[in-house]
Amino acid sequence: MKKRHLLGFIITGVAMLVLSGCASYGVIDNAPLSESTPTQPYSIKSRLNKVGSGDIGLTLAFSGGGTRAAALAYGVMEELRDTTVIIDGQPRRLLDEVDTISSVSGGSFTSAYYGLYGERIFEDYKDEFLTRDVERKLFRGLFNPLRWFSSEGRTEMAVKLYEAEIFHGATFADMRSEEAPLILINASDLGYGVRFSFVQEYFDLLCSDITSFPVARAVTASSAVPLVFHPIVVKNYPECKAAGKPEWMLEAAKRVAGDPELTDVLQGLETYYEEDRRKYAHFVDGGITDNLGLRAIYEVIEMSGGAQTFYKKAGRKPPRYAAIISVNASTDPEPEMDLSNKQPSVAETIGAMSDVQLHRYNKATLEVMHNKLGKWAEAVSTPDRPVTPYFVQVSFQDVMQPEEKRFFNRIPTSFNLSEEQVDRLIEAGHELLRNDPDYQRLLADLGGAQLQASVTPATH
């Protein structure tokens, strides 16, 4: 199958969907809360006090971008695996210091795979997903006339494919390993434009138990491009709503007053308590509300009351070194329309409009997170235990060689890349992280604090 930018075949997909005109219904696969719900579900609170050494707080954010994003994120993880520091006289890999991985769309495949299988990701993930032509199988099913009239919906085909060939029927009960970081798989609520993370705190808003929810279904939601795929639908159960809104939501309403953005977020989450209007929720591509995976981190900390309150609720003291690594796989391709006076196609027009909006939103998000990280570190610092922030950005913008940058910017947003493209993306993840000034500063500061960082050269 010829590789094309995702927007290039949306037009064809829409035409087929219009012609089909067949109503479909989302499969409901989320269970209500019950007495059998685990006392330690897959939640933010239960995970964050079990990982890392405590001295280093390391958060990764994986962007969207299909297999391009998944491969770049994988390269960053390999580099963290290959980098060791000495803490209390013992060598530790930086990968073992990761507390949280927040991801959207293509990046969610890598984060979820690591959350489920740990070190196995370095053995088989490349063959299981990165170099596999997933797109051919997806669109073979998508354009199958027999499916046009199915009441089950096109997205179920993707869920079944991911369950069978990548996540092997795993649920969030399988993500509760004490050694693994918290994995925040993020999607967008299509009805109200609010970001939704697949952890118990968010499922509590639905009176639902995340334990039995399939990981493949969450990843499908995170990467379900509207129009091409139907949303993932979950039921909003009413049983626990009689007790009223949770205390954190009531407190947040007071704290976010005067902040338009956080007020919109809170109001969107509050709609889950409007039982008459919200019997179901429809989740699509997380990149719509947060293409970098950074807004999830920002919202979770700010909605909890800020960094001090967040660490207190998580049951852990603030780290001395707080680092966020943003792995941004967005591209900046050269528009071919400017080489001719020929009117651009519909796909080119949609793509250009989408790229402009995406780049501006990404830029604003990066600026907000950079500034906020510094304020969080300042808020939790004490005279005897200062906290130093590091905002590391892995992006194709920092590729220095023009031909190399052009190569990466031409890689499409698809689930079908060549082995050469995957290998070069993985190596780019290594090099871009290794050469980032804030990452170098982090390693230097660790050594200066008698933690003596030493970098093990990557062999590729």
Summarize the SSE layout with pairings.
Layout: H1 10-20, E1 31-32, H2 44-48, E2 56-62, H3 66-81, E3 83-87, E4 90-93, E5 98-104, H4 106-117, H5 121-130, H6 134-142, H7 145-148, H8 155-167, E6 182-189, E7 195-197, H9 200-203, E8 208-209, H10 215-223, E9 232-235, H11 247-255, H12 260-270, E10 280-284, H13 287-290, H14 294-303, H15 307-314, E11 321-328, H16 346-380, E12 388-395, H17 402-409, H18 419-435, H19 437-451, E13 453-455
Parallel strand pairs: 2-5, 2-11, 5-6, 11-12
Antiparallel strand pairs: 1-8, 3-4, 3-13, 6-7, 6-10, 9-10
Number of helices: 19
- Cα distance spanning the termini: 29 Å
Mean pLDDT: 85
- Main β-sheet, in a few words? 8 strands, mixed
Low-confidence stretches: 1-12, 14-20, 448-460
Overall 3D shape? globular
Class computed from helices, strands and strand pairing: alpha/beta
Using only C-alpha atoms, the radius of gyration works out to 22 Å
β-strand percent reads 5-15%
List how many beta strands DSSP finds.
13
Name the helicity range.
40-55%
Short structural description:
With 460 residues, the protein is of the alpha/beta class.
Describe this structure in words.
- By secondary structure, this protein is α/β, with parallel strands linked by helices.
- It has helices at residues 10-20, 44-48, 66-81, 106-117, 121-130, 134-142, 145-148, 155-167, 200-203, 215-223, 247-255, 260-270, 287-290, 294-303, 307-314, 346-380, 402-409, 419-435, 437-451; strands at residues 31-32, 56-62, 83-87, 90-93, 98-104, 182-189, 195-197, 208-209, 232-235, 280-284, 321-328, 388-395, 453-455.
- The strands form 3 sheets. Strands 2, 5, 6, 7, 9, 10, 11 and 12 form an 8-stranded mixed sheet that branches. A 3-stranded antiparallel sheet has the order 4-3-13. Strands 1-8 form a two-stranded antiparallel ribbon.
- The longest helix has 35 residues, at 346-380.
- It is globular and about 60 Å long.
- 44% of the residues are buried.
- Residues 1-12, 14-20 and 448-460 have low confidence and may be disordered.
